[in-house]
Write a structure and sequence with these properties.
Blueprint lengths: L5 E2 L2 E2 L7 E6 L2 E2 L14 E7 L1 E2 L2 E2 L6 E6 L14 H8 L3 H9 L3 H4 L5 E6 L1 H5 L5 H6 L2 H9 L2 E2 L5 H4 L4 E3 L5 E6 L4 E3 L2 E10 L2 E6 L20 E12 L3 E2 L8 E2 L5 H7 L4 E5 L15 E6 L2 E2 L7 E6 L2 E2 L14 E7 L1 E2 L2 E2 L6 E12 L3 H6 L5 H9 L3 H4 L5 E6 L1 H6 L2 H8 L2 H9 L2 E3 L4 H4 L4 E3 L5 E7 L2 E4 L2 E9 L2 E6 L29 E3 L4 E5 L22 E5 L10 H4 L7 E6 L4 E4 L9 E5 L7 H5 L13 E3 L2 E6 L6 E2 H4 L7 E10 L5 E8 L5 E3 L2 E3 L4 E2 L4 E6 L3 E3 L1
Parallel strand pairs: 9-15, 16-27, 28-34, 45-47
Antiparallel strand pairs: 1-2, 3-4, 3-5, 5-8, 6-7, 9-10, 11-12, 12-13, 13-14, 14-15, 17-18, 19-20, 20-21, 22-23, 22-24, 24-27, 25-26, 28-29, 30-31, 31-32, 32-33, 33-34, 35-36, 37-40, 38-39, 38-40, 41-50, 42-49, 43-48, 44-45, 44-49, 46-47
Amino acid sequence: MSVLEGIEGIRNNNETGESWFVYINGTQAGEDFGMNPVSNGTNLSFWYTDEENGVAALDNATYLANITVAIEELEEPAEENDIIETATEAGNFSTLLTAIEAANLTDTLKGEGPFTVFAPTDEAFSALPNGTIEALLNDTDALTNILLYHVADERLMAEDVVNLTNITTLQGGELPVNVTEEGVFVGEAEIIVQDVNASNGVIHVIDAVLIPEEGMEPEPEPGQNVTELYNDTVSLTEGNFTLMPENSTESYAINNFTDIGALNAAGLDFNVSLMQNMTGNAANMTAVPFTLQSVEGIRNNNTTGEEWFLYINGEPAEEDFGMNNVSAGDNLSFWYTTEKGGEAAVENASYVANITVSELRANANIIPAAQNQTNLTVFVDAVQTANLTQTLDGTGPYTVCIPSDEAFNKLPEGTRNQLMNNTTLLNQVLSYHVVSGRYTYEQLIGMNNITNIQGNVLQVNAIGNNITIQNVSVTQIIVVNNGVICIIDEVLIPPDGEIPADNQTDGGQIDDNQTDGGQMDGNQTDGDQIDGGQMDGNQTDGNQTADNLTGDWYFFSIPFEANNTSVEYLLSDVNYTSLIYYNASTKLFEEVTEIEPLKGYWINVPDGTGFNASEQFSSVEKKQIEAPPSLQVYPGWNALGSPVNETVPAEAAFIALNNSYAKIVGPWVPGNNTTGYYQYVGYNGLNGTIGENQLGADEFEVEPYEGYWVFIRQENLYA
């Protein structure tokens, strides 16, 4: 334990009360000097000031020293060092090297290559369950399988990796790549050091050992003697069959798309029994689970223990038979085998029926089809209240994004009540979900956007077989007579809707994990709006609505503190309609009376007027710096400006926030008549150009006089 007495000869002063205070990532240190653990990326600020209520009075500070901790990365090896030699010199891969030797792979990785090796550290191996390493070292085949899953037979630099979705490994399996706000992941491991060059390839250091899925197949491998009863693609049509369960005297109509529907559409002879007693003539069995008794006359056998198991997309079905909703593209495998560990012993299977769903169809228009889905009751009732039933049952065609009941339940109670009690507003919100035209799964997966009947452009994004609209996941697609139903897991709120900003704001919902519904989803930005309360190129909302503001919006900042910071002084010659700032602590936009550094401001000016912040403030008298300005930032989106009067990379501009910011969006490019877009999205912790307008923090340039949205994970001090 020690006390910090002085820095650069400037000592604690008992007469004036000034002394040195330590702040770590914007928060006053909890321990005495020398007792506070720090890690890579930690920001330390040493303030020389007096004390106020037990904490440093930063506003009175006269001296400041800022330090950012950077753990020394692996030195780039000499070109003559191969991968094995490079890992050996690094000194943190002894377990990996021992395993490579035990698996007789040393000569392979010293070969010509080139190779890409995702190298787990000794610490990563230590995190494995006790006894795992010893067991692997005694099982050469298993060890070789795992080690080769860490190696690709080509040189993939970091800039190549982030543009891939899968990497083919020497093990034969596909290693998935996932680029997130947190970092770049291969499988479940994060790349913590990248691009360590060797003469025959490159090493990327990872923080976990990669374990390949057995077989690396989308579904379990069948046994040697399995008989294939069926293997084809089917279209499911709602209400096209009836079901008479075993030992029942009544038949029941099946009006939802389930695994029962897939069996029926395949034309397979099957029998089921109810798992609960039924009384009366039920017209819809949506909520009733069944037991699959037989397929093609092959019955469950209590003597041998063989029975039917269902797998969907290679995974055991989560629900009882008859309760699993399936979508276009899904694969259903029915295995007849014994049980092992609560799951099907697929290797012992004697029969299998494989069914792939090509399309879901309904013999009804949009509203009747929605009524047949038990999870769309809120939408159906809301459509009736908003007088849209006749429209959606018309000839169309329409593609309707229908939020599930669970999606409506996610809305704050105040928002939900306001919607249901305001017919005009409800009509506006529901219409935002309706698109003219018929867009099936095959069409949507190849599109970038669609336009709703209000004229709003909705962003479409496909990742693998998954589709999002306005960054909201599509969970099921149903083709109906007059269009298509896309069931979604969030409610889309139009950018100009008068919706309270409880915990969500606009159409596509800034929920402190993503930006807007118009449109920044981590894969693209479009910038029709980025909310927070809400803010878009057409309007702002928060403490005010701006429905009557038709001019152009500009997002600006000033990289210095003016002698006179009043709006009245700084904008005395500007013809503007509105000036607001987004308060991240309250998540509301506020009127502005002072223009301060480090903050991003929105200003609305009449059409054709224009606003250039660098010209407007170039001749403003600047305040003599006594202590650098600082700004408290909060979890979620913060409107910020550059701290310096020059263009610098984001990793330099936001170095004080390096451990807490995840993403940055901007600058805003104004358009004519209130339109515009955000130019780039940047990711902290990533390098280079990731794709189109997506950049790493080293490439994303922060310009003075521009405003930016910065997503903060934890409260911090921006200085």
